[in-house]
């Protein structure tokens, strides 16, 4: 498995690293005035480099594709086609991704799940496609990448060392 394969699978579904990085930038720019898109893209790629993230992404995308082809057994097929609000498995998988850089990812994910920023909104609006898992996984990846940036901020180190 590789980051490149994860990126290719995302691109096949209309999601670029840049689009996810744009969400990360929007989440973190207020806290990091010198933040660049390159830093955000690097953070997204670091998240995509985690094997558990890759496996989760591959599983979610496969289920979305199977649903588009009407290859899932009932009642799962109908649940996926209707993006049943009480299904919750898609959010549960994405929450695993959010936690790889600490609990701050959870709050960012909740915000993104409600606000549907950037490509997350686009995925939800795409006619004829099923992105039950992908929209939440993109939110999870963005939340994790945002958390990674927050954890790497120089100011965060002062809390653990006792200096300011």
UniProtKB/TrEMBL annotation:
GO molecular function, one term: phosphatidylglycerophosphatase activity
Entry's Gene Ontology BP terms: lipid metabolic process
Coiled coil feature spans: none
YutG/PgpA domain segment(s): 38-150
Superkingdom of source: Bacteria
Protein name: Phosphatidylglycerophosphatase A
Lineage: Bacteria, Bacillati, Bacillota, Bacilli, Bacillales
């Amino acid at each position: 498995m590789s980051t490149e394969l994860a990126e290719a699978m995302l691109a096949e579904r209309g999601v670029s690293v840049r689009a996810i990085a744009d969400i990360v930038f929007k989440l973190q720019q207020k806290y990091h005035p010198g933040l660049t898109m390159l830093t955000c893209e690097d953070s997204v790629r670091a998240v995509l480099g985690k094997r558990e993230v890759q496996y989760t992404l591959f599983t979610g995308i496969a289920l979305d594709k199977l649903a588009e082809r009407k290859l899932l057994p009932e009642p799962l097929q109908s649940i996926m086609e209707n993006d049943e609000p009480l299904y919750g498995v898609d959010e549960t998988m994405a929450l695993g991704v959010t936690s790889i850089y600490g609990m701050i990812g959870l709050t960012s994910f909740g915000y993104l799940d409600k606000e549907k920023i950037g490509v997350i909104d686009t995925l939800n609006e795409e006619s004829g496609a099923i992105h039950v898992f992908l929209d939440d996984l993109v939110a999870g990846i963005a939340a994790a990448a945002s958390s990674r940036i927050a954890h790497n901020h120089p100011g965060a180190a002062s809390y653990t060392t006792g200096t300011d």
